[in-house]
Amino acid sequence: MSTRTSALDAVVFGVDIQSGDIRGDAPSYALVVYDGDDENLERDVVSHRKLQRLIADVEPAIIATDNMYELAADKDQLIHFLGSLPSNTKLVQVTGDEQPETLSRVAKRHGIPYGKEPMQEAEAAARLAAHNVGHEVSAFTDTTEVKVSRGRSTGKGGWSADRFTRRIHGSVKRRAREVESALEDADLEFEREVREAYGGFANAVFTVEAQPADIPVSRSRSGDVRVEIERERRDGIEFRPLAKRRDHVVVGIDPGTTTAVAIVGLEGDVLDVWSSRMSTTADVIEWIVERGRPIIVAADVTPMPETVEKFRRSFDAAGWTPERDLPIDEKQHRTREFPYEDDHQRDALAAALYAVDDHTDQFERIARKLPAGIDRGEVTARVVTDGETVETVLEDLSEDDEPDEDETEHEPRELTPEERRIRDLERQVERLEDHVDTLEGRIEDRDEEIEDLEAELAVTRREERRKVRKDREVSRLERKAERLENERDEARDTIEGLEQKVERMKALWKLDHSNFADVSEKQAGLVPVKVVEQFTRGAIQEADEAYGIATDDVVYVRDASGAGRSTAELLASFEPRVVLKDGGLSDIARSILFDRDIPVGPAEDVAMQEVDELAVAREADVEAVIDDWRERAQDRERDQKAQMVDRLISEHRAGDNEA
To answer: How far is CA 402 from its chain centroid?
Structure first.
């Protein structure tokens, strides 16, 4: 039985096609449900539809198969199938990644019972996956998009269209804030992109760095709002091994109250560093085992501490110590390019790195002697740990490939032309296979380079999206700031105009009150005058709006020419005390004002002093103009009466003559 750590925390479905074909109409599958109990396995033959229903109902931890394309006809259908799985369910191909092995070979290597019947193959797949054998098939990243949007169209509604639209967008905005709060409470990293609309949000998209199972939000659709959750797709299909590969490594250990461990690869690359005050020896060993197979255990002091020696014996590894205790400055210099959290980690890391430095030449000599296809780590471990030579190890590894030699000596015979041709072709095949291995190695290097570039491109795209969102937000704030500045300038202009008007009104108030409490002694005997620029309706209304024309006000018309009946009637309706004018006054205007008993006099007879749109005049001058007008009014009235008497006499005489 395999010695791998079991991955079984829940149910595993082992699946193998029983009959038909996924490209046909009705394939059936052999299904084995394995939960760790070898005595009570559940076996059944199900259709593809029933298999999907069982997966949705049971939510197994793993769906194990020897060929993922038995569950989907092509790549697109496979991605659709992966997208339909519950968030905690994995699809595992137990036979490997892009170049799978046969199920029988994998089962034999791990000591799993195997048979050729579909139900036996399904059981073997389930057991292998339960023991961490195989690769998880993934078409999605660990990034999830949560979209909050409208649950219905804004084109209909029982209310008016505006109110209906505002309600929907307001509901989307409230739900988006709830989702954002839930993501923040769960301490998840996310980005938010919002499209604002009338009354709220048209939609809000949250890009969350987590799988759907880790997000405290579920799909929903209720009334005005819809929440959709979709994982971000990869560019292709990815295979991830269930069990991490355990390479041969060099381990540095710093014992004490705080135990620190550093794991370094044979090439000198730092794989991991760790320290703890509370861990036991078993905890330390388990941590090391999960990260590699030690061939050298190193300390930074001489002789090797007893605790480090115990770890070395437990791994049956070679030991390394410096010729003298490593000085602090040398340890700091050797570890300067690598991150560590405390001095204990630094000491453990320095010990491992110096051990690799001390064995670098030996590692390179071993690598140069190895033919293609031989595990370098295995050979290096046996040479360093057991003291074997490279040749002995290679001979031991190739013993299974060597044919048994007959002890009886025999004379070599001459090869036939066909045999020579076969020999030459075999040699050519070997050369071509070596060339293929070289090309495959180059392809792997190119693939790794492509993956690195794709990862860099993904980071660049995220940065660009973040920059675009930032620029959009800056533009929005700049537009808002510009709008507010314009509103501020308009408000200042309005305030300035109102302040000027207030000052004018104050001056008018002072002039218009009888007590003249705030007027200087020089202003005693003055009367306020309301100035009208032209004798037109517009000018009269403008003056009235600016400072008001009231009954018994003194009105000064700068230009009295051109006034008609309606203009004169408008001015007369205010019942001013007197109208002072510059320029000639029309007969119709003069007649109307006279009929309304409104005095009219020349402005030149009154001494006035203007204050902005207002003016003040001497009371005595105003009274003089009024008195003069009254005298002229009496003369005019006498003239009119005399004319009327003459007209009556004339009419009477004309009547007598006719009689």
So the answer is: 61
DSSP 535-549: SSHHHHHHHHHHH--
CA distance 130 to 445: 32
In 423-560, the DSSP E strands lie at 526-534, 554-559
Smallest CA-to-CA distance from 179 within 220, 221, 146, 143 is with 146
Beta strand pairing status for 614-618 and 608-611?
antiparallel
CA 112 to chain centroid, in Å, comes to 47
CA 395, CA 414: separation in Å to the nearest integer? 29
Q: How far is residue 89's CA from residue 273's CA, in Å, rounded to a whole number?
A: 32
Which residue type sits at 13? F
Give the CA diameter of the chain: 188
Strand partners, 562: none
Calpha distance 344→351 (Å, rounded): 11
Please give the Cα distance from 574 to 560 (Å, whole number).
Answer: 17
- Whether the link from the prior residue into 303 is cis, omega within 30° of 0, is yes
pLDDT averages per 10-residue partition of the chain, 659 residues: 45 91 81 85 90 91 92 86 87 89 84 89 92 87 89 59 79 91 91 86 90 86 86 83 77 93 91 90 86 91 92 90 93 92 94 94 87 76 84 72 38 60 75 78 78 77 88 92 92 88 67 44 69 89 85 89 86 90 86 88 85 77 89 82 82 71
CA 473 to chain centroid, in Å, comes to 13
Q: Where are the alpha helices (DSSP H) in 370-416?
A: 376-386, 390-397
CB 297 within 8 A of CB 312: yes
Instruction: Name residue 266's amino acid.
Output: L
Token digits for 579?
């109208």
Distance from C-alpha of 199 to C-alpha of 191, rounded to nearest angstrom: 23
Backbone torsion region of residue 159, taken as left when φ is above 0, otherwise alpha when ψ lies between -120 and 50, otherwise beta = beta
Q: Which residues contact 409 (CB under 8 A, 6 or more apart)?
A: none
- Phi/psi at 498 (5° precision): -65, -40
Q: What is the residue whose two structure tokens read 């300067």?
A: 336
- Break the chain down into helix, strand, coil percent, rounded to 5: 50, 20, 30
Judge if pTM exceeds 0.85: no
Q: What is the rounded CA–CA span in Å between residue 38 and residue 34?
A: 8
From residue 495, alpha-carbon distances to 490, 492, 499 in Å are 9, 5, 6
Amino acid symbol at 439: L
What b-and-e string marks burial along 423-435, b requiring 16 or more CB atoms within 10 Å of the CB? eeeeeeeeeeeee
Tell me the C-alpha distance between 8 and 128, whole Å: 11
| Cα within 13 Å of Cα(64), Cβ side | 33
